[in-house]
């Protein structure tokens, strides 16, 4: 989730089809002497009207990647397929979650291949749906296999240590998703309601997600509450059901850092900070209206979806879904959230279809807006350190590259 991350495919006994959400942009040019700060019932509220960085100063990425891993042809260890996450270790090594082969691939600080951990399978240290990756103390690695609902721990050299599953953590009909680890090693887990369980009804739906905390062994510690989930549109026809995330629909973003977690429902430009017990401690807001959804936006969205469709059956589904689905009047307030190594919040602006330039609003750890940072087009951010940004870049031939950019702070 993050993250910034894609909505998982939900499974049920009836036909269920998923369309990925698209993203768009916003901007902020005004200068500000600082946010308006007030307290309400013990909650600190920051109203940001403009950035603190003056003029053209601020943070920026290097013009070119200082590390690039990925080739079209050649050594298979550099051919990447469906990289879903990557992390940089303290010694400069980079670990990529190559979900296409369900492997963790290790590279040195210069991008040279070192070793592989894990493989396709259901046994200890194996994966069937490798997705998320985090670093813990002493560069140990925490992974999440979303197909097995299993958390696995590896040491810094890629040796398997232990694992536990989340099947019984939340309950029947709910799909668990790890948001990330707290500083004490406990995990924030989100439970997403499956459409195949309970009442099947059509139309717009937005089921709440249950957020809870489990200890490093997978035992439930505390329930932190229910928060808004994704907006879906559901079509029911006799013995089948079709569902898609709503075009320009609202979706949750969540991230963990230290002993806090951040949540945003994307309805408006607001992020909430909670402590590990689920107590609300801060609201961070930005004075930026949601972009309006125009006829051109919907036409471009449908055109892009039809172009990317793999076959005629998928194009038929797209036509039917968008013919019935109501479009919202405005787009979500933002797209994704990443918290960097220093506790700064990077919030990716929502972009109109066709706008390929990612823009991020950066807030410091106290919730004060600093300014805007651009990242390269076709680049997905995985991790932001004190002086680097690590992510996945897709070139014009659809070749995947794990890239690292230097981060300069003026």
Number of strands: 30
CATH architecture: 6 Propeller
For the sheet with most strands, the description reads: 6 strands, mixed
Fourth-tier CATH superfamily name: TolB, C-terminal domain
Number of helical stretches of at least 4 residues: 3
| Strand fraction | 35-45%
Task: Write a structural description.
The relative contact order is 0.18. With 410 residues, this protein is mainly β. The chain has three helices and 30 strands. The longest helix is centred in the C-terminal third of the chain and has 14 residues, at 295-308. The chain has a single domain (36-409), classed as Neuraminidase, CATH 2.120.10.30. The two termini are 30 Å apart.
Could you give a short description of this structure?
The protein has helices at 167-170, 295-308, 312-324; strands spanning 36-40, 43-48, 59-61, 67-69, 83-88, 94-98, 103-107, 113-117, 130-135, 141-145, 150-154, 160-165, 174-181, 187-193, 203-205, 208-214, 220-228, 232-237, 240-245, 253-257, 260-264, 270-275, 280-286, 334-339, 345-349, 359-363, 369-374, 379-384, 388-394, 400-409. It is mainly beta and 410 residues long. It has a six-stranded mixed beta sheet, with no helix packed on it. Strands 3, 4, 28, 29 and 30 form a five-stranded antiparallel beta sheet that branches.
